[in-house]
Amino acid sequence: MTTLYAGLMSGTSLDGIDAVLVEAEPAGQLLAHHHQPLPAALHDELLALNAVGGVDELARAAGAARDLADAYAGCLATLLDKAGEPARSVRAVGAHGQTVRHCPAEGYTIQLLDAARLAERGGIDVVADLRSRDVAAGGQGAPLVPAFHAARFGRAGADVAVLNLGGIANLSLLAADGHVRGFDTGPANALLDHWAQRHLGQPYDADGRWAAGGQVQPGLLAALREEPYFQLPPPKSTGRDLFEPGWLQARLDRFPPAAPQDVMATLLALTVSTVIDALRLQAPNTTRLRVCGGGAFNASLMTALAAGLPGVDVQDTSADGVAPDHVEAWAFAWLAQAFVERRPGNLPAVTGANGPRVLGALYPA
Ligand SMILES: Nc1ncnc2c1ncn2[C@@H]1O[C@H](COP(=O)(O)OP(=O)(O)OP(=O)(O)O)[C@@H](O)[C@H]1O
Ligand SMILES: CC(=O)N[C@H]1[C@@H]2OC[C@@H](O2)[C@@H](O)[C@@H]1O[C@H](C)C(=O)O
Protein backbone atom coordinates (compact mmCIF):
# COMPACT_ATOMS: atom_id res chain seq x y z
CA MET A 1 0.00 0.00 0.00
CA THR A 2 1.29 3.48 -0.87
CA THR A 3 2.21 5.72 2.06
CA LEU A 4 0.25 8.99 2.08
CA TYR A 5 1.19 12.44 3.35
CA ALA A 6 -0.85 15.60 3.75
CA GLY A 7 0.30 19.20 3.54
CA LEU A 8 -1.45 22.24 5.04
CA MET A 9 -0.40 25.75 4.09
CA SER A 10 -1.73 29.17 4.97
CA GLY A 11 0.63 31.69 3.48
CA THR A 12 1.36 35.38 3.69
CA SER A 13 -1.56 36.32 1.41
CA LEU A 14 -3.83 35.28 4.29
CA ASP A 15 -6.43 34.15 1.75
CA GLY A 16 -7.01 30.74 3.32
CA ILE A 17 -5.72 27.22 3.77
CA ASP A 18 -4.52 24.99 0.95
CA ALA A 19 -4.50 21.28 1.74
CA VAL A 20 -3.23 18.39 -0.37
CA LEU A 21 -3.12 14.64 0.02
CA VAL A 22 -0.25 13.04 -1.87
CA GLU A 23 1.50 9.76 -2.31
CA ALA A 24 4.99 9.50 -0.85
CA GLU A 25 7.96 10.39 -3.02
CA PRO A 26 9.66 9.49 -5.25
CA ALA A 27 7.23 10.27 -8.03
CA GLY A 28 4.16 10.36 -5.81
CA GLN A 29 0.89 11.64 -7.27
CA LEU A 30 -1.54 14.19 -5.89
CA LEU A 31 -4.76 12.52 -4.74
CA ALA A 32 -6.82 15.47 -3.53
CA HIS A 33 -6.75 19.23 -2.92
CA HIS A 34 -8.98 21.43 -0.83
CA HIS A 35 -8.95 25.18 -0.34
CA GLN A 36 -10.75 26.70 2.60
CA PRO A 37 -10.99 30.44 3.21
CA LEU A 38 -10.03 31.59 6.70
CA PRO A 39 -13.01 32.55 8.87
CA ALA A 40 -13.34 36.34 8.55
CA ALA A 41 -12.65 37.06 12.24
CA LEU A 42 -9.54 34.86 12.24
CA HIS A 43 -8.31 36.48 9.02
CA ASP A 44 -8.66 39.93 10.56
CA GLU A 45 -6.98 38.87 13.80
CA LEU A 46 -4.02 37.28 11.98
CA LEU A 47 -3.66 40.39 9.83
CA ALA A 48 -3.71 42.54 12.98
CA LEU A 49 -1.13 40.29 14.65
CA ASN A 50 1.18 40.82 11.68
CA ALA A 51 1.43 44.46 12.69
CA VAL A 52 3.96 45.21 15.41
CA GLY A 53 2.82 46.80 18.66
CA GLY A 54 -0.70 45.49 19.16
CA VAL A 55 -2.31 45.23 22.58
CA ASP A 56 -2.11 41.92 24.52
CA GLU A 57 -0.29 40.19 21.66
CA LEU A 58 0.69 37.07 23.66
CA ALA A 59 -2.82 35.99 24.61
CA ARG A 60 -4.20 36.97 21.21
CA ALA A 61 -1.46 34.99 19.44
CA ALA A 62 -2.32 31.92 21.50
CA GLY A 63 -6.01 32.32 20.70
CA ALA A 64 -5.30 32.73 17.00
CA ALA A 65 -3.02 29.66 17.03
CA ARG A 66 -5.83 27.69 18.65
CA ASP A 67 -8.44 28.89 16.14
CA LEU A 68 -6.11 28.25 13.22
CA ALA A 69 -5.62 24.65 14.43
CA ASP A 70 -9.40 24.20 14.36
CA ALA A 71 -9.58 25.65 10.85
CA TYR A 72 -6.70 23.36 9.74
CA ALA A 73 -8.48 20.35 11.29
CA GLY A 74 -11.70 21.19 9.43
CA CYS A 75 -9.80 21.61 6.16
CA LEU A 76 -7.97 18.30 6.71
CA ALA A 77 -11.24 16.46 7.40
CA THR A 78 -12.80 17.80 4.18
CA LEU A 79 -9.66 16.87 2.25
CA LEU A 80 -9.82 13.28 3.51
CA ASP A 81 -13.56 13.13 2.72
CA LYS A 82 -12.87 14.27 -0.83
CA ALA A 83 -10.18 11.59 -1.21
CA GLY A 84 -12.26 8.91 0.49
CA GLU A 85 -9.34 8.13 2.82
CA PRO A 86 -9.49 7.63 6.60
CA ALA A 87 -7.10 9.54 8.86
CA ARG A 88 -5.25 6.32 9.73
CA SER A 89 -4.06 5.96 6.12
CA VAL A 90 -2.04 9.20 6.37
CA ARG A 91 1.48 8.79 7.74
CA ALA A 92 1.87 12.47 8.73
CA VAL A 93 0.70 15.97 7.92
CA GLY A 94 3.14 18.82 7.37
CA ALA A 95 1.46 21.92 8.80
CA HIS A 96 2.99 25.33 8.16
CA GLY A 97 1.00 27.63 10.45
CA GLN A 98 0.69 31.39 9.98
CA THR A 99 3.79 33.52 9.78
CA VAL A 100 3.28 36.64 11.90
CA ARG A 101 6.94 37.63 12.36
CA HIS A 102 9.97 36.76 10.27
CA CYS A 103 13.21 38.06 11.80
CA PRO A 104 15.95 35.51 11.03
CA ALA A 105 18.65 38.12 11.69
CA GLU A 106 17.40 38.32 15.26
CA GLY A 107 17.24 34.54 15.47
CA TYR A 108 13.51 33.91 15.22
CA THR A 109 10.59 33.37 12.88
CA ILE A 110 7.07 32.81 14.22
CA GLN A 111 4.46 30.58 12.60
CA LEU A 112 1.34 30.50 14.75
CA LEU A 113 -0.36 27.09 15.03
CA ASP A 114 -1.47 25.02 17.99
CA ALA A 115 -0.03 21.81 16.55
CA ALA A 116 -0.95 19.77 19.65
CA ARG A 117 -4.58 20.71 19.09
CA LEU A 118 -4.34 19.76 15.40
CA ALA A 119 -2.92 16.34 16.34
CA GLU A 120 -5.74 15.93 18.88
CA ARG A 121 -8.46 16.96 16.42
CA GLY A 122 -7.03 15.36 13.29
CA GLY A 123 -5.84 12.02 14.63
CA ILE A 124 -2.75 12.16 12.40
CA ASP A 125 0.91 12.78 13.32
CA VAL A 126 1.58 16.48 12.81
CA VAL A 127 4.96 17.85 11.76
CA ALA A 128 4.99 21.59 12.52
CA ASP A 129 7.43 24.42 13.24
CA LEU A 130 9.30 23.70 10.03
CA ARG A 131 11.40 26.87 9.85
CA SER A 132 12.97 27.45 13.26
CA ARG A 133 15.69 24.78 13.05
CA ASP A 134 17.11 26.34 9.92
CA VAL A 135 17.10 29.74 11.67
CA ALA A 136 18.81 28.16 14.69
CA ALA A 137 21.49 26.91 12.29
CA GLY A 138 22.11 30.47 11.08
CA GLY A 139 19.78 30.28 8.07
CA GLN A 140 16.92 32.43 6.83
CA GLY A 141 14.34 29.70 7.55
CA ALA A 142 12.95 30.53 4.10
CA PRO A 143 12.35 29.86 1.35
CA LEU A 144 11.97 26.12 1.95
CA VAL A 145 10.23 25.16 -1.29
CA PRO A 146 13.26 25.21 -3.65
CA ALA A 147 14.20 21.59 -2.83
CA PHE A 148 10.69 20.47 -3.71
CA HIS A 149 10.67 22.66 -6.82
CA ALA A 150 13.91 21.01 -7.88
CA ALA A 151 12.45 17.53 -7.39
CA ARG A 152 9.28 18.37 -9.34
CA PHE A 153 10.28 20.94 -11.96
CA GLY A 154 14.06 20.64 -12.44
CA ARG A 155 15.30 19.48 -15.87
CA ALA A 156 18.69 18.03 -16.60
CA GLY A 157 20.46 20.17 -19.17
CA ALA A 158 18.28 23.31 -18.76
CA ASP A 159 18.34 26.31 -16.44
CA VAL A 160 14.84 26.42 -15.01
CA ALA A 161 13.36 28.94 -12.57
CA VAL A 162 10.23 28.51 -10.49
CA LEU A 163 8.46 31.61 -9.20
CA ASN A 164 5.98 31.45 -6.34
CA LEU A 165 3.67 34.47 -6.35
CA GLY A 166 2.18 34.40 -2.88
CA GLY A 167 1.92 37.32 -0.48
CA ILE A 168 5.66 37.54 -1.01
CA ALA A 169 7.35 36.34 -4.21
CA ASN A 170 10.14 33.78 -4.11
CA LEU A 171 12.31 32.38 -6.89
CA SER A 172 13.92 28.96 -7.10
CA LEU A 173 16.84 28.77 -9.53
CA LEU A 174 17.36 25.21 -10.74
CA ALA A 175 20.59 25.10 -12.73
CA ALA A 176 21.19 22.62 -15.52
CA ASP A 177 23.94 20.98 -13.42
CA GLY A 178 21.53 20.33 -10.54
CA HIS A 179 22.67 23.20 -8.30
CA VAL A 180 19.74 24.88 -6.55
CA ARG A 181 19.47 28.42 -5.26
CA GLY A 182 16.49 30.41 -4.10
CA PHE A 183 15.41 33.59 -2.29
CA ASP A 184 12.49 35.97 -1.81
CA THR A 185 12.44 38.69 -4.46
CA GLY A 186 10.03 41.01 -2.61
CA PRO A 187 6.33 41.80 -2.37
CA ALA A 188 3.62 40.22 -4.53
CA ASN A 189 0.00 39.76 -3.44
CA ALA A 190 0.49 41.22 0.06
CA LEU A 191 0.57 44.77 -1.33
CA LEU A 192 -1.69 44.09 -4.34
CA ASP A 193 -4.40 42.66 -2.06
CA HIS A 194 -4.05 45.50 0.42
CA TRP A 195 -4.66 48.02 -2.37
CA ALA A 196 -7.58 46.04 -3.85
CA GLN A 197 -9.21 45.77 -0.43
CA ARG A 198 -8.76 49.46 0.29
CA HIS A 199 -10.00 50.80 -3.06
CA LEU A 200 -12.23 48.07 -4.50
CA GLY A 201 -13.44 46.56 -1.24
CA GLN A 202 -12.42 43.19 -2.68
CA PRO A 203 -9.89 40.67 -1.38
CA TYR A 204 -7.93 40.81 -4.64
CA ASP A 205 -7.92 42.34 -8.12
CA ALA A 206 -9.49 39.45 -10.05
CA ASP A 207 -7.26 38.44 -12.97
CA GLY A 208 -5.42 41.76 -12.58
CA ARG A 209 -8.17 43.48 -14.61
CA TRP A 210 -8.18 46.70 -12.57
CA ALA A 211 -4.38 46.97 -12.69
CA ALA A 212 -4.50 46.47 -16.47
CA GLY A 213 -6.48 49.71 -16.87
CA GLY A 214 -4.02 51.80 -14.82
CA GLN A 215 -0.92 53.74 -15.87
CA VAL A 216 2.39 52.88 -14.23
CA GLN A 217 3.73 55.94 -12.38
CA PRO A 218 7.49 55.99 -13.15
CA GLY A 219 8.46 58.25 -10.22
CA LEU A 220 6.56 56.16 -7.70
CA LEU A 221 7.91 52.93 -9.19
CA ALA A 222 11.47 54.25 -8.88
CA ALA A 223 10.83 55.24 -5.25
CA LEU A 224 9.45 51.81 -4.43
CA ARG A 225 12.40 50.15 -6.12
CA GLU A 226 14.85 52.14 -3.98
CA GLU A 227 14.10 49.77 -1.10
CA PRO A 228 17.53 48.35 -0.10
CA TYR A 229 16.14 44.81 0.24
CA PHE A 230 16.03 44.49 -3.55
CA GLN A 231 19.80 45.04 -3.82
CA LEU A 232 20.77 42.57 -1.09
CA PRO A 233 22.55 39.47 -2.33
CA PRO A 234 21.03 36.06 -1.46
CA PRO A 235 20.55 34.30 0.89
CA LYS A 236 17.66 36.57 1.78
CA SER A 237 14.04 36.36 2.80
CA THR A 238 11.41 38.86 3.77
CA GLY A 239 7.79 39.16 4.77
CA ARG A 240 4.95 41.38 5.82
CA ASP A 241 7.29 42.74 8.53
CA LEU A 242 8.87 44.91 5.83
CA PHE A 243 6.36 45.06 2.96
CA GLU A 244 3.34 46.31 4.90
CA PRO A 245 0.83 49.08 4.20
CA GLY A 246 2.92 51.66 6.10
CA TRP A 247 5.91 50.95 3.85
CA LEU A 248 3.79 51.74 0.80
CA GLN A 249 2.14 54.80 2.36
CA ALA A 250 5.49 56.33 3.33
CA ARG A 251 6.53 56.25 -0.34
CA LEU A 252 3.13 57.41 -1.65
CA ASP A 253 3.35 60.41 0.67
CA ARG A 254 6.36 61.72 -1.26
CA PHE A 255 4.23 62.31 -4.38
CA PRO A 256 1.08 64.22 -5.27
CA PRO A 257 -1.92 61.89 -4.89
CA ALA A 258 -2.15 59.40 -7.77
CA ALA A 259 -5.29 57.69 -9.05
CA PRO A 260 -5.71 54.43 -7.07
CA GLN A 261 -5.86 52.43 -10.30
CA ASP A 262 -2.50 53.87 -11.37
CA VAL A 263 -1.00 52.90 -8.00
CA MET A 264 -2.29 49.36 -8.58
CA ALA A 265 -0.60 49.23 -11.98
CA THR A 266 2.59 50.52 -10.34
CA LEU A 267 2.50 47.89 -7.59
CA LEU A 268 2.09 45.19 -10.22
CA ALA A 269 5.05 46.65 -12.11
CA LEU A 270 7.05 46.57 -8.85
CA THR A 271 6.49 42.84 -8.43
CA VAL A 272 7.23 42.12 -12.09
CA SER A 273 10.35 44.30 -12.30
CA THR A 274 11.90 43.00 -9.07
CA VAL A 275 11.41 39.40 -10.22
CA ILE A 276 12.87 40.11 -13.65
CA ASP A 277 15.86 42.03 -12.21
CA ALA A 278 16.60 39.12 -9.86
CA LEU A 279 16.33 36.56 -12.62
CA ARG A 280 18.53 38.54 -15.03
CA LEU A 281 21.18 39.09 -12.37
CA GLN A 282 21.21 35.68 -10.71
CA ALA A 283 20.30 33.28 -13.53
CA PRO A 284 20.67 35.01 -16.90
CA ASN A 285 20.67 31.71 -18.83
CA THR A 286 17.22 30.69 -17.66
CA THR A 287 15.17 29.37 -20.57
CA ARG A 288 12.05 28.29 -18.73
CA LEU A 289 10.09 30.02 -15.96
CA ARG A 290 7.27 28.20 -14.23
CA VAL A 291 4.94 30.22 -12.01
CA CYS A 292 2.91 28.98 -9.05
CA GLY A 293 0.96 30.49 -6.16
CA GLY A 294 -2.24 32.49 -6.48
CA GLY A 295 -0.49 35.20 -8.49
CA ALA A 296 -0.29 32.73 -11.38
CA PHE A 297 -4.05 33.37 -11.80
CA ASN A 298 -3.42 37.10 -12.23
CA ALA A 299 -3.43 37.38 -16.03
CA SER A 300 -1.93 40.89 -16.00
CA LEU A 301 1.00 39.73 -13.87
CA MET A 302 1.63 36.72 -16.10
CA THR A 303 1.42 38.81 -19.29
CA ALA A 304 3.83 41.42 -17.91
CA LEU A 305 6.30 38.75 -16.79
CA ALA A 306 6.28 37.07 -20.21
CA ALA A 307 6.64 40.44 -21.97
CA GLY A 308 9.64 41.32 -19.81
CA LEU A 309 11.41 38.02 -20.42
CA PRO A 310 11.66 37.58 -24.19
CA GLY A 311 13.12 34.20 -25.12
CA VAL A 312 12.04 32.62 -21.84
CA ASP A 313 9.21 30.07 -21.87
CA VAL A 314 6.92 31.54 -19.20
CA GLN A 315 3.96 29.42 -18.09
CA ASP A 316 2.29 28.43 -14.88
CA THR A 317 3.21 25.10 -13.30
CA SER A 318 0.16 23.33 -14.73
CA ALA A 319 2.28 23.12 -17.92
CA ASP A 320 4.37 20.62 -15.91
CA GLY A 321 1.38 18.84 -14.42
CA VAL A 322 0.92 20.60 -11.06
CA ALA A 323 -1.79 23.24 -10.56
CA PRO A 324 -0.30 26.53 -9.29
CA ASP A 325 -2.35 26.47 -6.10
CA HIS A 326 -1.25 22.93 -5.19
CA VAL A 327 2.49 23.51 -5.17
CA GLU A 328 3.13 25.05 -1.73
CA ALA A 329 0.92 22.65 0.25
CA TRP A 330 2.55 19.77 -1.61
CA ALA A 331 5.96 21.11 -0.57
CA PHE A 332 4.91 20.88 3.09
CA ALA A 333 3.67 17.30 2.62
CA TRP A 334 7.08 16.63 1.06
CA LEU A 335 8.81 18.22 4.07
CA ALA A 336 6.71 16.04 6.41
CA GLN A 337 7.98 12.97 4.59
CA ALA A 338 11.55 14.24 4.86
CA PHE A 339 11.05 14.67 8.63
CA VAL A 340 9.54 11.18 9.06
CA GLU A 341 12.52 9.73 7.20
CA ARG A 342 14.87 12.02 9.16
CA ARG A 343 16.24 13.56 6.00
CA PRO A 344 17.24 17.24 5.92
CA GLY A 345 14.54 19.54 4.52
CA ASN A 346 16.62 22.68 4.05
CA LEU A 347 19.17 23.53 1.40
CA PRO A 348 22.05 25.46 3.02
CA ALA A 349 22.89 27.00 -0.38
CA VAL A 350 19.43 28.58 -0.32
CA THR A 351 18.87 29.56 3.30
CA GLY A 352 22.48 30.13 4.34
CA ALA A 353 22.21 27.66 7.22
CA ASN A 354 25.41 26.14 8.58
CA GLY A 355 24.43 22.76 7.20
CA PRO A 356 21.61 20.43 6.24
CA ARG A 357 19.09 19.99 9.06
CA VAL A 358 16.04 17.84 9.71
CA LEU A 359 13.20 20.38 9.91
CA GLY A 360 10.14 20.23 12.11
CA ALA A 361 8.76 19.07 15.43
CA LEU A 362 6.53 16.04 15.87
CA TYR A 363 3.15 16.07 17.59
CA PRO A 364 2.09 12.41 17.55
CA ALA A 365 -1.58 11.59 16.89
N1 LIG B 1 -7.99 35.02 -10.19
C1 LIG B 1 -7.07 35.72 -9.51
N2 LIG B 1 -6.70 36.94 -9.94
C2 LIG B 1 -5.79 37.66 -9.28
N3 LIG B 1 -5.17 37.25 -8.16
C3 LIG B 1 -5.52 36.04 -7.68
C4 LIG B 1 -6.47 35.21 -8.32
N4 LIG B 1 -6.56 34.06 -7.61
C5 LIG B 1 -5.70 34.18 -6.57
N5 LIG B 1 -5.07 35.37 -6.61
C6 LIG B 1 -4.10 35.91 -5.65
O1 LIG B 1 -3.44 34.86 -5.00
C7 LIG B 1 -3.48 35.05 -3.58
C8 LIG B 1 -3.36 33.72 -2.89
O2 LIG B 1 -2.14 33.15 -3.27
P1 LIG B 1 -1.44 31.98 -2.46
O3 LIG B 1 -2.48 31.09 -1.92
O4 LIG B 1 -0.38 31.45 -3.33
O5 LIG B 1 -0.78 32.79 -1.30
P2 LIG B 1 -0.09 32.30 0.01
O6 LIG B 1 -0.02 30.82 0.06
O7 LIG B 1 -0.79 33.02 1.08
O8 LIG B 1 1.31 32.97 -0.15
P3 LIG B 1 2.83 32.70 0.29
O9 LIG B 1 3.47 32.02 -0.87
O10 LIG B 1 3.31 34.07 0.49
O11 LIG B 1 2.89 31.87 1.50
C9 LIG B 1 -4.75 35.83 -3.36
O12 LIG B 1 -4.71 36.55 -2.14
C10 LIG B 1 -4.75 36.74 -4.57
O13 LIG B 1 -3.94 37.85 -4.36
C1 LIG C 1 8.65 33.16 6.66
C2 LIG C 1 7.67 32.74 5.63
O1 LIG C 1 6.57 32.30 5.95
N1 LIG C 1 8.04 32.87 4.36
C3 LIG C 1 7.19 32.47 3.24
C4 LIG C 1 6.63 33.72 2.57
O2 LIG C 1 5.75 33.36 1.50
C5 LIG C 1 6.53 33.33 0.29
C6 LIG C 1 7.92 33.62 0.76
O3 LIG C 1 7.67 34.42 1.91
C7 LIG C 1 8.69 32.34 1.20
O4 LIG C 1 9.94 32.74 1.69
C8 LIG C 1 7.99 31.58 2.33
O5 LIG C 1 7.12 30.57 1.92
C9 LIG C 1 7.48 29.51 1.08
C10 LIG C 1 6.44 28.47 1.17
C11 LIG C 1 8.84 28.86 1.36
O6 LIG C 1 9.27 28.76 2.49
O7 LIG C 1 9.46 28.40 0.41
Automatic annotation (TrEMBL):
Gene3D superfamilies, per the entry: 3.30.420.40
Reaction catalyzed: 1,6-anhydro-N-acetyl-beta-muramate + ATP + H2O = N-acetyl-D-muramate 6-phosphate + ADP + H(+)
One Pfam family recorded for the sequence: AnmK
EC number: 2.7.1.170
Keywords for this protein: ATP-binding, Carbohydrate metabolism, Kinase, Nucleotide-binding, Transferase
Residue ranges that the Swiss-Prot or TrEMBL entry lists as coiled coil: none
Pathway assigned to this chain's UniProt record: Amino-sugar metabolism; 1,6-anhydro-N-acetylmuramate degradation; Cell wall biogenesis; peptidoglycan recycling
InterPro entries referenced in this protein's UniProt entry, alphabetically: Anhydro_N_Ac-Mur_kinase (IPR005338), ATPase_NBD (IPR043129)
Molecular functions (GO terms): ATP binding; kinase activity; phosphotransferase activity, alcohol group as acceptor
GO biological process terms held by the UniProt record: 1,6-anhydro-N-acetyl-beta-muramic acid catabolic process; amino sugar metabolic process; peptidoglycan turnover
Binding site for ATP: 11-18
Family classification: Belongs to the anhydro-N-acetylmuramic acid kinase family.
Stated role: Catalyzes the specific phosphorylation of 1,6-anhydro-N-acetylmuramic acid (anhMurNAc) with the simultaneous cleavage of the 1,6-anhydro ring, generating MurNAc-6-P. Is required for the utilization of anhMurNAc either imported from the medium or derived from its own cell wall murein, and thus plays a role in cell wall recycling.
HAMAP family assigned to the protein according to its UniProt record, in alphabetical order: AnhMurNAc_kinase
Protein name per the record: Anhydro-N-acetylmuramic acid kinase
Source organism of this protein record: Rubrivivax albus
Phylogenetic placement of the source organism: Bacteria, Pseudomonadati, Pseudomonadota, Betaproteobacteria, Burkholderiales
